[in-house]
Specification:
Length: 264
């Protein structure tokens, strides 16, 4: 008797579990909005961190970043040439024109939400605004590929295609940050599979109803190469170019992709 190979699928949740993840995601969304509202010139990234933590704890949730492998913040605050994993600090003071990427996670009733966005402090130059817009469009292209029957790298390819479409529309090139990407998520923040932000379609595990991924493109105005600072966390562009980061936790449903980290 011959048995076929069991098909590999991206881990999936029940409808009720997706609702529980959406509740955690809503806390993250509220924290991000509160942080953006507080991000004015003269405010430190540590103050933004305290805003996020207060929102998360007031909702009965726990910041999932705080203490993660020793990380000291409830958010990652990555300003200008910092790509991801910036550590909130009392010494880092926001100024008008800064481009700020905030990544935030919360766990509620054992389920994780993870989301990020990039915004300007006051008025920002057009190139920075376009960079953030291109990154958002890349994320949305990836979200649109969260369909039953698609494969993991169909999402990667959609993100990359979204970047190239933005390049065409904006008349410039963007760097797709090498080596970083999205991930599975559920009862842990980072789960398999790893989701690359570029690549050929049609490979990897299959998406099924209930599959969840954190989709998070990172683009720069220059290089795709990065370094990690001496703090062991902060990822920076090697050429000093500015970077943007957008992320949503997303589920596959019969009615199309469902964003689980909706912002109020």
């Amino acid at each position: 008797m011959a048995f076929g190979r069991k098909r590999k699928v991206v881990p999936f949740r029940s409808a009720g579990e997706l609702d529980a993840m959406a509740a955690a995601g809503a806390v993250v969304g509220a924290a991000l909005v509160a942080v953006r509202n507080a991000a004015v010139p003269g405010v430190s990234t540590l103050e933004l961190d305290r805003v996020a933590e207060a929102v998360i704890r007031d909702a009965g949730a726990v910041p999932s970043f705080l203490g993660y492998h020793g990380f000291t913040g409830s958010i990652c605050s990555s300003v200008n040439d910092r790509v991801v994993h910036g550590i909130p600090s009392a010494d880092e003071i926001l100024a008008a024109g800064d481009l700020v990427s905030i990544d935030c996670g919360a766990v509620l009733d054992g389920w994780h939400g993870d989301s990020a966005w990039t915004f300007g402090v006051g008025d920002i130059i057009e190139a920075d605004a376009m960079l953030s817009e291109a990154t958002r469009l890349s994320m949305e292209a990836g979200i649109a590929a969260m369909l039953p029957g698609n494969r993991l790298t169909d999402v990667s390819h959609a993100i990359e295609s979204g970047t190239h479409a933005a390049e065409k529309a904006h008349g410039r090139k963007y760097g797709i940050v090498d080596g970083y990407g999205g991930h599975g998520i559920g009862r842990e923040m980072h789960m398999d599979p790893f989701l690359a932000n570029e690549g050929a379609p049609g490979k990897g595990p299959e998406l099924v109803v209930g599959s969840t991924l954190a989709i998070e493109p990172m683009l720069t105005l220059g290089t795709y190469d990065t370094d990690i600072l001496e703090d062991g966390w902060t990822v920076v562009t090697t050429d000093g170019s500015r970077s943007a980061h957008w992320e949503h936790t997303v589920a596959v449903t019969e009615d199309g992709p469902r964003i689980l980290t909706v912002r109020p």
